[in-house]
Each structure stands twice: as structure tokens, then as C-alpha cells.
């Protein structure tokens, strides 16, 4: 359970950093009712990209370890 929590925190870290950074920068120029959705959208895009690359990486790993593709000597 601790390993899953650590992996979850590591996956959320880039999105959280981007959210906080955009929140601070955009708050200087826009109202709070616009800043939160824009920063959340950027964080959601980062999480979506992480999920897409993670799935591509897992697909590559599963394809690499395909036992049916092995030849019998």
C-alpha cells in the first residue's frame, strides 16, 4: 500500500507543480474564477499525457515479454 501511495504521489507531483506555478502567475493578471479552471485544465493535460505515455510504455514492455513470440530451440 505504501508503494502505491508513493507511486501516486510521484505521478501527481508534475501536475501539482504546474498547477501552483500557473495559479501564482495567472492570479496576477486574471480573476480567481478564471485562474482555477485554467490551472486545473493544464494539470489535467499533464496527467493525461502521463497516462498516455505510461500506457505506451507498458504496451512496449508487454510486447517485449511476449512468450508466444519466443522460438523453441
What is the number of independent domains? 1
Number of strands: 0
Q: Percent of residues in helical segments?
A: over 70%
Poorly predicted tracts of residues: none
How many helical stretches? 2
**Helix- and strand-based class?**
mainly alpha
Integer average pLDDT: 92
Distance between the termini: 41 Å
Strand content: under 5%
Most strands sheet? none
Q: H/E series, N to C? A: HH
Q: Overall 3D geometry?
A: elongated
Radius of gyration: 19 Å
Question: How are the SSEs placed, and which strands pair?
Answer:
Blueprint: H1 2-27, H2 32-64
Report what the structure shows.
The N and C termini lie far apart (41 Å). This protein has one domain (2-65). The model has no long low-confidence stretch (mean pLDDT 92). With 73 residues, it is mostly helical. It is elongated, with a radius of gyration of 19 Å. Helices cover 81% and strands 0% of the residues. The chain has 2 helices and no strands.
Task: Please describe the structure with a list of short key phrases separated by commas or semicolons.
73 residues, mainly alpha, 2 helices
Put the structure in a nutshell.
This protein is mainly α.
Amino acid at each position: 500500500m505504501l508503494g502505491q501511495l508513493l507511486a501516486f504521489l510521484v505521478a501527481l507531483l508534475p501536475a501539482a507543480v504546474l498547477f501552483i506555478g500557473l495559479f501564482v502567475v495567472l492570479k496576477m493578471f486574471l480573476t480567481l474564477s478564471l485562474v482555477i479552471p485554467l490551472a486545473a485544465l493544464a494539470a489535467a493535460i499533464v496527467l493525461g499525457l502521463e497516462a498516455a505515455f505510461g500506457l505506451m510504455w507498458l504496451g512496449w514492455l508487454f510486447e517485449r515479454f511476449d512468450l508466444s513470440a519466443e522460438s523453441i530451440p
